[in-house]
Amino acid sequence: MKNKNLFIVLILVLLLGGLSINFLIRVNEENSDITSKLIIQDGYNVKKIIEGLNEPTSFAVDANGNFYIAERIGSDVVINKYYKNGKNETFVKGFSYPVNSILIYKDYLLVSHKGKISKVIDNKVEDIITGLPSYGDYSNNGIQIGYDGHLYICQGSATNSGVVGLDNYERGWLKENPYFHDFYPVDVVLSGINFKSSNPMTESKNDKAITGAFMPFNMQSSKDSVIKGKTPGNASIYRTYVGSTNLDLFAYGIRNPINIVFTHDNKAYVSVQGMENRGQRPIENGCDYIYEIKKGDWLGWPDYEGGEPVTLKKFKPKNAPQPQFITEMHPTTTPPKPLISFNESGRIGVMDISRQNAFGYVGNLFIPLRSGKNEEAKIVAYDIKGNLLVDFIKNKEEKIIKEPIQCSFSKDGILYILDKGNGCIYCVEKVEEKQHSLNRIYIPVEYLIGTVVIALIVILILQIRKTK
Questions:
Q1: Are 228 and 189 in a shared domain?
Q2: Residue 19's domain spans which residues?
Q3: How many CA atoms lie within 13 A of 166 on its CB side?
Q4: 3-state secondary structure of 300
Q5: Which residues cross the membrane (predicted)?
Q6: Which of 447, 416, 451 is nearest to 82 (CA)?
Q7: In b/e form, how buried is each residue of 351-387, taking b as 16+ CB within 10 angstroms?
Q8: Total domain count, the chain
């Protein structure tokens, strides 16, 4: 009889423990579903699956559903691994901020971080490409393996529009790297236009600086002077084979290429941040863009914006002169025009393409746009073939999504979104029209072990009381 009672108690404790765990997990799952708080295309739901991230800048998800997320923790820039069962750990350290791209390649990681492309294998960092010109406004950004087997590297510009100025001093890098400037990847002929500003590099408030295009701060240029091209150069996309240090120039004149994606027929599409109304050569009405890009393309930076010459009136700021060409002998007077433009510049993030019928929108680019001066944060879907753009996810009155910077699809057709502003990752899935059965709930094994331990303690207490 005594053993029977103990057995009943054990069963009851296990059942109660299991029910309580199921209840807690259900509550967490319900709280993570934010679909009702957003405006989203019909047939999809959004959940917050990871939160509490510290200054996240990039992520990748493996075939098992584990995440590798670049975070800044104090002075350390690390990649943390978040397992599917909820655990997480520091996977590897030793990166320079920012980490702008993480790529799972074969059985290791490729990481694009300031000035370098590194390989992570056996939890060790091995630099495979160094010396990228990333000490200005923008760094080396997205990396991707094309269908041709090349590793493609997106490299941003050092300045807004080709001239080092006060905006670069305010951003902090000019004082640390006073001789750094944009390095063009091919020879460039200068028009000889120079720009006058105050000189924050000296103690005298009345000191003036005169700076030319593609020159260090306070160094003048002269007409028809030739600046020799450098590899690697800024505002470019390079390609190489993994393991090689030989960089092949793929395309250039691209102010800040964020990332590049490929369709199954090896067409390349790049997201680009355009010029801004700041610095010694401000450009009004700059935008962000999506381009189809081919080998050898020149997209026009710094004398063209969105395929148009900056000498057009639309690019003149209210309180600054009309921008003029700072280079001569352009490769073409008709650089490629973007497939699509977005209002304002500096908003576009890392995009990805839907390839799975399980998600839908096959062939569409999913593009994160952070908030700007007049535009709100959202995720848009762009149908390349139909040239159709739709708002896929956007906020209602409450600003749930703050700063989306990356969209990535897993191999099983789930869309993940990194929100830097909220320090979290969202999961977007297609919802079946008829789904009456409850989804199976995963219970981590440590919870079950804990329940068994509690049950054994209860039995031990009952035994002790009975012996008394």
A1: yes
A2: 2-32+443-467
A3: 16
A4: coil
A5: 441-462
A6: 416
A7: bbbbbbeebebeebbbbbbbbeeeeebbbbbbebeee
A8: 2
pLDDT of res. 206: 87
- The reply to whether 324 and 271 lie within a common domain is yes
Q: What is the pTM of this model?
A: 0.86
Residue 48 belongs to domain with CATH number = 2.120.10.30
3-state secondary structure (DSSP) of residue 151: strand
| Tokens read off for 111 | 């990481």
Q: Do 264 and 385 have their domain in common?
A: yes
- Report the chain's C-alpha Rg in angstroms: 27
Q: Would residue 303 be called left, alpha or beta, if left means φ above 0 and alpha means ψ between -120 and 50 degrees? A: alpha
Does residue 37 fall inside a structural domain?
A: no
* Type of residue found at 395: N
CA distances from 304 to 177, 207, 325 (A): 27, 32, 9
E-strand spans in 241-334?
A: 248-252, 256-262, 268-273, 288-293, 304-305, 308-309, 327-328
pLDDT given at position 464: 61
> 127 in helix, strand or coil?
strand
Angle between helices 2-32 and 445-467 (to 10 degrees): 150
Alpha-helix residue ranges (DSSP H) falling in 71-172: 166-170
**Residues paired with residue 137 on neighbouring β-strands, in sequence order:** none
Confidence at 437, pLDDT banded by 50, 70, 90: very low
Mean pLDDT in residue range 415-433? 94
Q: Is there a domain that residue 39 lies in?
A: no
Q: What is the pLDDT of residues 367-388, one digit of tens each?
A: 999 999 999 999 999 999 999 9
Question: For the residues of 199-252, what is the DSSP string, one character each?
Answer: -TTSS-TT-EEEEETTS-TT----TT-EEPP-SS-SSEEEEE-TT----EEEEE
Contacts 24+ apart (CB under 8 A), 453-457: 454/13, 454/17, 455/9, 455/10, 455/13, 455/14, 455/17
- Would you say residue 1 has pLDDT above 90? no
Q: Would you state the structure tokens that stand for residue 96, as one six-digit string?
A: 């320079």
| Residue 452, pLDDT above cutoff 60 | no
